Amino acid sequence: MGALDHFSDFFGGRKKSKKIKEIKTVELKVRMDCDGCERKVRKALSSMTGVQSVEVDRKLQKVTVTGLVEDKKVLKKVKATGKRAEIWPYVPYNLVSEPYSPHAYDKKAPPGYVRKESFSTNKTSSSNPLDEEIATAFSEENPNACLIM
User: Fold this and answer.
1) Biggest distance spanned by C-alpha atoms of the chain
2) pLDDT of 42-75, one tens digit each?
3) What is residue 53's predicted lDDT score, i.e. its pLDDT?
4) Cα gap 132→149, rounded to integer Å
5) How far apart are the first and last CA of the chain?
6) In degrees rounded to 5, what are phi and psi of residue 130?
7) CA–centroid distance for 2 within its chain
8) 56 to each of 27, 37, 52, 63, 90, how far by Cα in Å?
9) What is the C-alpha to C-alpha distance for residues 59 and 100, in angstroms, rounded to an integer?
10) Residue 48 burial (CB < 10 Å; 0-12/13-18/19+)?
11) Cα–Cα–Cα angle for 76, 82, 87, nearest 5°?
12) Distance CA 68, CA 22 (A)
């Protein structure tokens, strides 16, 4: 039977295995004002296939979906309800080295959170060498800085 199995595999007799989805947690920022908004979002997300749990925190404007779901599909489903939604853009401020720097601090962030972009962007390095040279001319580490001033 080995030759027969080989030929059946060769001619497409065996089905391709599907990619196994992993249980994911998707966090969204959704604009919700009342119980009706919360109920509408919860009902829409609960009706999706693969969703195991939906948690809504109206005070933080945060929705957490757990299950065999994809980020884009969950976001699309929430937007279909007519609500403004985006992937949760915040992280706890104690995970960021400089939480009050201009690129991380956000006035609209919930208490104790800052923007997530601070992990990926490095604002300390300058792309222009001339700018870097001017900045170091007036730094405390430059022994000739007092002569320039």
Assistant:
1) 90
2) 999 999 999 999 999 999 899 999 999 999 999 9
3) 94
4) 18
5) 89
6) -65, -40
7) 49
8) 10, 11, 14, 5, 16
9) 23
10) middle
11) 45
12) 6
- Can you give the chain as a three-state secondary structure string? CHHHHHHHHHCCCCCCCCCCCCCEEEEEEECCCCHHHHHHHHHHHHCCCCEEEEEEECCCCEEEEEECCCHHHHHHHHHHCCCCEEECCEEEHHHCCCCCCCCCCCCCCCCCEEEHHHCCCCCCCCCCHHHHHHHHHCCCCCCCHHHHC
For tokens 């104690």, the residue is: 94
Q: What is the C-alpha to C-alpha distance for residues 107 and 120, in angstroms, rounded to an integer?
A: 20
> pLDDT tens for residues 74-119?
999 999 999 999 998 888 878 877 777 777 777 788 888 888 764 4
- Which two tokens mark 25? 């947690």
